[in-house]
Amino acid sequence: MKATISHIKADIGSLPGHTTVYAPVEEEVRKFVSDNSRGLLTGFHVGHVGDDIQITMVHSRGIDNPEVHGLAWNAFKAGTEVAKKVGLYGAGQDLLKDAFSGNIKGMGPGVAEMEITSRKSEPFIVYMMDKTEPGAFNFPIFKMFADPFNTPGLVIDPNMHDGFRFEVWDVLEGRKIELPSPENTYDILAMIGSKSRYVIKRVYTKEAHEKLPDENVAVVTTDKLSLIAGEYVGKDDPAAIVRIQSGLPASGESLEAFAHPFLVSGWMRGSFNGPLMPVGIKDSKMTRFDGPPRVAALGFVLKDGKLAGPVDLFDDVAFDGARRTAIEMTDHLRRMGPFEPHRLPESDMEYTTLPKVLSRLSSRFTPIEGHIKAETLEEPTRDMD
Ligand code: F6R
Ligand code: MG
Ligand code: MG
């Protein structure tokens, strides 16, 4: 049986700064979805991580469905009204366009959707990150589906032994490439290590997978708010749907990818590298330096279009060690203040407010005599030949 899982998220205002959602706003969004989902959705869940409201929907209309996207858009609009009434900070922030035109993509909210052939039991995890960007998923998704040190199923389970297919997007050039692993593992890594440019969009099983051939098994939001708005309007806090078990990474293999905090870009003013801390929903408040960046995970199962769950998977003592490490990393990094590599490199600051500050200084610069500009350095070398 075919089913579609659509996860759509947006920051429509937070309390007091970019810290967390205001419960009545989340309640309004939940009520709107509930009141308007008849005949459209077969199941849904509305929640939040940090300052982002997260809507998980199940239906049978396929991806890019105008009614499903419209429902999420209008629910965010309804929530924005409540946010405006109480004066929430950044009310309606991610709703970048005035009118909905049939597809929510490119309008601000993040979208991750997949149409699947539903298994007898269809378990999946929705990962939601705050204060970071889509490329933050590169490392953990690679570990889940391509690193046998994280996922021993790649070695042990005959259904996983052939590996998976990765669809990687170049979000700057607007092009994509499909590469199989393990055949092209090093090529995949050559790209996805540059996480602000190359992002894993989807993972598929291969044709040879006995239980689930050629199926989409993971999808990540890849919406770049900065590129849509042309200026900094908050990082594009991403989410991902990952199917698990029975020839796919086990629940624990998927979660294990977050057991050792790694650095992601975002955090304060979308301008800093910081550790990604796995937390339960109750701890997804972005406090210290507007962070540190966090990831929460909700586990569901799907049967005949109906959802059971969620279970709050990082709300567990087994991840206390990861949280402690993330806090130690935070302490170390914060001492660097505005210096790289805590602060992002200049190339990644292009869409922040820093260029505005630097442009104010441009008229005060004077040339350094005899200094060769970086782009002319090649010329003297050629003369010597
Ligand atoms: C990061 C984020 C926050 C804000 C910061 C300043 O994604 O949203 O760290 O950048 O709180 O916000 P403004 O400029 O709105 O005062
Ligand atoms: Mg925000
Ligand atoms: Mg956010």
What does this structure look like?
This protein is of the alpha+beta class and 385 residues long. The protein has 10 helices and 15 strands. The chain folds into 2 domains: 1-117, Alpha-Beta Plaits (2-Layer Sandwich); 118-360, no CATH class. The strands form 3 sheets. Strands 5, 6, 7, 8, 9, 10, 13, 14 and 15 form a 9-stranded mixed sheet that branches. The longest helix is centred in the N-terminal third of the chain and has 20 residues, at 66-85. It starts with a strand and ends with a helix. Bound molecules: fructose -6-phosphate and magnesium ion (MG) (2 copies).
Give the count of structural domains: 2
- How much of the sequence lies in strands comes to 25-35%
The distinct bound ligands, ions and cofactors come out as: fructose -6-phosphate, magnesium ion
Task: Give the integer mean of the pLDDT values.
Answer: 94
Radius of gyration: 22 Å
How does the overall form come out from the CA principal axes?
Answer: globular
The SS-based structural class is alpha+beta
Tally the helices: what do you get? 10
Give start-end ranges of low-pLDDT stretches.
none
Q: Classify the helix fraction into a percent range.
A: 10-25%
Q: Helix and strand layout, with pairings?
A:
Elements: E1 2-10, H1 23-36, E2 43-49, E3 52-59, H2 66-85, E4 110-117, E5 122-130, H3 138-146, H4 153-156, E6 164-170, E7 175-180, H5 185-192, E8 198-205, E9 216-220, H6 225-229, E10 239-243, H7 251-256, E11 263-266, E12 272-275, E13 277-278, E14 294-303, E15 306-312, H8 320-334, H9 354-359, H10 378-384
